[in-house]
Amino acid sequence: MNYIIELIRRSKTFFVYILLALTYLFGVFSESSGLINEFMDSYEDWVYLLKQNVIMVFASGITASFLGICAGILMTRPWFKRYAEAFSQSFNILSAVPTLAILAIIMTLTGLGFKSAFIGLLTVTILPVVRNTYQGISEVPDHMIEAASGQGMTERQILWKVQFPNALYVISAGIRTGFALNVGTSPLITLIAADSLGEFIFTGIQLNEFSSLLIGSLSVAILAIGTDFILSKLQYWLLPKGVNPQRFVQE
Amino acid sequence: MIRLENLTKHFEVPGKEPIIAANNVSMAVGKGEICIFLGPSGCGKTTALKMINKLIPKTSGKIYIDGKDTDTMDPIALRREIGYVIQQIGLFPNMTIEANICVVPDLLKMDKKQSRKKARELLEMVNLEPNIFLKRYPRELSGGQQQRIGVIRALAADPPVMLMDEPFGAIDPINREVIQDEFLKMNAELGKTVLFVSHDIDEAVKMGDKIAIFREGVLEQCDTPDEILANPANNFVKEFVGADRALKRLKLIRVNEAILPFRMAVRPDDPLDSVAEKMRSREAHIAVMVGPRGRARGFITKEEIKGDQSGIVSEYIDPLPGTIHENDNLHDAVSQMYSHATDWMPVVDDDGAYKGYITQHIVASLLGEVPRKPGEKIT
After folding, report:
1. Tell me, what's the pLDDT at A251?
2. In DSSP terms, which residues pair with B84 in a beta bridge?
3. Which of B27-36, B273-282, B370-379 is predicted most confidently?
4. What is the percent of chain B where pLDDT is above 70?
5. How big is the CA angle at B193 (ends B187 and B194), to the nearest 5 degrees?
6. How far is it, in rounded angstroms, from Cα B92 to Cα B104?
7. Is the peptide bond before B371 cis (omega within 30 degrees of 0)?
């Protein structure tokens, strides 16, 4: 109790009060509407679906990040430069296609289940990764490249020692965006018969069961916030100090 | 050390005449010399520089480094043997200062321990404390500090040749002076052959053993700073070096080169008649009185001792207008003379001992002598 009082005293904003009030209201509400009972009843399902959802998000997200970085690097290579514009345009067009449509198209190609869902989420995630990788690498200043080649670095050394490390922050921002999109899209894969927290949401909609809907959507929201939190911590600690604006010394 | 033969570069412009950025440039720079490529922007000086380390491919002509034709060398290997400094510095923000300095040694797979030790030595040479700076990132340094790192990075693998593309152009004037002096001092020790692009005539006069003046791809004149200031080859060079070129030459001459051959030192207790005799025989107007440890104390003029010649020097003495150090340049000396409204100035050494004096007349006649060889004294 002392701790909470201290916390409230120290917080300079009104934020904590609001949060406490909301939590309290939410508790009252969930108890009175039977949300908690509902949640306890479907607890086993929830754990299973959450696990499936997390696996799906990370499997597709990590694969997409890897492929996206490769594709982005490829686009900056001199021999590929003249196709790069067309390439990035096609990625832009792809990102304009609604996610649901992408899932539908992929379903017609690879059928129902995990595989289609995986490819669908991968497509969603890869776009910002590719775009940021391409941009991050292209935006490394010319004079830095000139200094690198003037000192006798080969094309490959310039990429790995100079361009890529200096693009890392922009790339990591792309990965974060990609993951956010990925988590946001993941409930939809229920529609093509893959397991995810979407099951709660869609069941809730179809049976007009408010508490089920709420369980699903809140879980996805928390998953999204949690994922981004983890990624932001990774971004903070994994990126080298020299290229990490979050860690620049304040002067 | 470096020889350019008929070096030519045409930049092809689609649908137009090609731009000629270098037109049959031939010149040679000796070992340990600093040669400044000077000219207005767009004159081809940077292009000429970058052709040497093959950052810009040449159209025709030959470049020899240490007698070796660079056509036969691999561009990557060649660049690793040539230090390269650019105006925008181009340190890599992802690496620490230590890693930045050791880029080339690491590329050449030199011993890590050795190269790290070298990095420390180099940092000390430019007055940056290794323990503070080695582990920092470029972002944490000021512009002047960054360019010092840029310069020593080029020196890390101990290349015999350095190319510098307006290295101090982006640094504020006060820092620039300091860093120029540091570099001159450092190179006096290291003896690298340096090609240095600049558009600043004052920098060129200060830094260069040789100046090459370019206009529209043509090498207009390549000679010592003194020669270029004294004898500009044509109107372009004359205009480029400026109307005050005679004054700029003053910076090239040190005070001890202009000192009069006789010291005209007298003691306080010397009798006036012998002093008058001494001055008459040397046609000197002024004699300086020195104290027991050789320091200049005051002066006496011919006019003052004209009539009465009995008595001793100390009775007729005037206070000195000021002194000038023997290693200062004539520019400073003349400036001091003007500020003290005098036409002569006694010269002293480090200990303040009187060495002789210079007059405005001798300065003027020095500038009149053309060409003047460096180190030459007046007789």
Report:
1. 45
2. B163
3. B27-36
4. 96
5. 80
6. 13
7. yes
CB B224 within 8 A of CB B373: no
Contacts of B91 in chain A (CB under 8 A): 147
Question: Residue B184's Cα: distance from chain center in Å?
Answer: 7
pLDDT digits (tens, 9 = 90+) for A47-70: 999 999 999 999 999 999 999 999
Is A123 in contact with A212 (CB distance < 8 Å)? no
Any chain A CB within 8 A of the CB of B126? Answer: no
A150·B92 Cβ contact <8 A: no
Tokens of A120: 């669908």
ipTM of the complex: 0.77
The pair of three-digit structure tokens given for residue B357, joined into one six-digit string: 């004096």
From chain B, pick out residues whose CB is under 8 angstroms from the CB of A151: 79-80, 84, 103-104, 107, 153-154
Closest CA to B2 of B38, B60, B51: B51
**How does strand B286-290 pair with strand B296-301?**
antiparallel
Give the H or E element holding residue B104.
helix B103-107
Bridge partner residues of B266 (DSSP): B289
Q: How far apart are CA A199 and CA A209, in angstroms?
A: 12
- Tokens 């040789």 belong to which residue? B210
Mean pLDDT of B251-278: 81
A151 with B84: Cβ contact below 8 A? yes
- The arithmetic mean of pLDDT across residues B251-265, rounded, is 81
| CB contact set of B311 (below 8 Å; sequence gap of 6+) | B271, B272
- What letter represents residue A19's amino acid? L
pTM as predicted: 0.80
Vertex B139: Cα angle to B135 and B145 (nearest 5) = 80
Identify whether the C-beta of residue B151 lies closer than 8 Å to the C-beta of residue B167: yes
Cross-strand partners of B222: B212
Alpha-carbon span A191 to A104, nearest angstrom: 9
Give A-chain residues touching B102 at CB under 8 angstroms.
Answer: none
